[in-house]
Amino acid sequence: MVEWTEEERAFIQEIFSKMNYEDVGPKSLCRALIVYPWTQRYFAHFGNLYNEEAIMGNPEVLRHGTVVLHGLDRGLNNLDNIKSSYANLSELHSEKLHVDPDNFKLLADCITVVIATKMRASFTPPKQAAWNKFLSVVVSALSKQYH
Ligand code: HNI
User: Fold this and answer.
1) Beta carbon of 10 within 6 Å of any ligand 1 atom
2) Is the pTM of this model over 0.85?
3) Could you give all domains of the chain from N- to C-terminal order, each with its CATH number?
4) Which atom of ligand 1 is nearest to the CA of 36?
């Protein structure tokens, strides 16, 4: 089981409390689709992903970005049991969506970049360390049902 210090818990809570899901989520997913274009193949049914402008103006992408970010809530609310709280989502991404699990880390990095641009100087190295630890545990939990 992952151990969290009180400081780490507080930093993670703080970052979530300052986060606007409807802003950070879409921006993070758009960034992933632009920076790592091979991730677009999973979202072909969302319509036009032709270029940066199309991706950033695609309502399906924007809506899904918020959905994905809310997917982190189950980690936040189950910090001491992250692994089992992602069992269903892991199975969905593996068995049904066939998402290559390497992509989880790439999207996580995009979320971190967007948060950094929002929080600026207040995203201190210790806060980034706690956040990075949180996302690493989520990514590992999401990859759990792959075999
Ligand atoms: Ni992901 C659906 C959470 C990474 C491709 N994804 C979801 C849903 C959640 C979610 C929540 C909605 C599930 C449902 O409907 O029951 N995804 C997350 C989280 C991460 C993540 C928390 C990592 C931080 N997903 C990824 C990545 C890809 C991805 C990296 C592909 C590159 N996800 C999908 C696709 C769907 C999806 C595709 C279905 C979309 C749809 O609506 O058709």
Assistant:
1) no
2) yes
3) 6-146 (1.10.490.10)
4) 32
